[in-house]
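Recap slide: Serine/threonine-protein kinase Genghis Khan, sequence and predicted structure.
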Amino acid sequence: MTGTNRRLDDRQQAVLKGFRGLGLGLRRNVRSYAHNLHDCDSTSQLTAADSEFAHDDTTENYTLLAEVAEYSDASYDLSGSEESPSSSSSTLGAPQLSYQSPTGLSPEDFEYLHSHALERCTSLKELGQGGFGTVDLVEITLPSGRTIAAARKVIHSPLYGQARYERELKGLMLCAGCPFVVDVFTSRTTEEGTFEFLLEYAPNGTLHDMLKAMEQRRRGKDKLLMPEHRIRYYAACVLQGLLFIHKRGQAHRDVKPGNVLMSASGRPMLADTDSMDSVQVTKRAGTTSYQAPELWRASLQGPGYTADKADMYAFGITLAEMAACPAGGNGKLQQIKDDPASNTPGYVPADLKDLLCGLLAPAAKRLTVEQAMGHRFFVGLDWDNLSDGPLGFAVQLRQGP
């Protein structure tokens, strides 16, 4: 009997050792997935996206055509003391514009989403606020019983008028279906004079938020903010969004990390299209610290500037932030802007540094979006599958306690 008990004890120990090995392997896999997603904040937790908000990719999409007024010639203030871009006629004639549908909705659900979602949605939490209004996370229960999540943007500033609303809506609808620009599901103006958008929900915040978390973790060490392959992926996604916009004769005109939203799969998406305009413009637009030098000379000499080249300069600054120097740091970002060839940190890879120099060059020599995509920094990148996200499945990056 004693020998039998000893054999059972040995077997139990073997089983226990196996379970311990399995648990260690699972923990390693979880750490590997978290590292591959953003490789940024050590306090973050990686979780699957809420299943009730998941979309079924096997069913048909529906779109709703909408009439949007053409860009007017009226000028408007961008925000407070910021720049005042002017509006110009669209170069696209009469493009077909449509609201997008979350994948898998029936025609009845989609009609309800467009007609009643903004007035019947339930607010879950505030996502952000500013001088113009608020953005909150909402859920909508559709006639079929399905519940979806979206971001409701409510604007109530007197600086944001009808012309600017039409511009932002048209910019969003012009990019409908592009996975690298946030989708709009519906919009409206209220009797109280507010403007509302129901937008695709990006649960992972903005690129600006991510860079801040990375900088806190880096603690001043002389190294890239994130691995080179991660920089390459995020940069390629933003370039794809800009390519989509530029090929339609338009420019985003406010490219910056704060206007890059991170989708559920970790895919970057351009947002805030209220500054979007045709490539040939005569007024400044965007955020001052991301504006190309020629924008400040536009009012003093020449017929204006080429807005798509200005987009590429702003993208260059965004790329510099992704690599090394988040805005608001110790002045190193300004030094890179002044002379990228001499002031880019030595730990930045040579190909990435060369790309930065091409993006921050004078307008006549600056890379176009097609030239940037063909740069050797992106050699070997799978451009066709960028929309799947870094991991290819929905994830959320949530802050730990």
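The chain is about 35% helix and 15% strand.
Residues 51-199 form a domain with the Phosphorylase Kinase; domain 1 fold (CATH 3.30.200.20).
(End of recap.)
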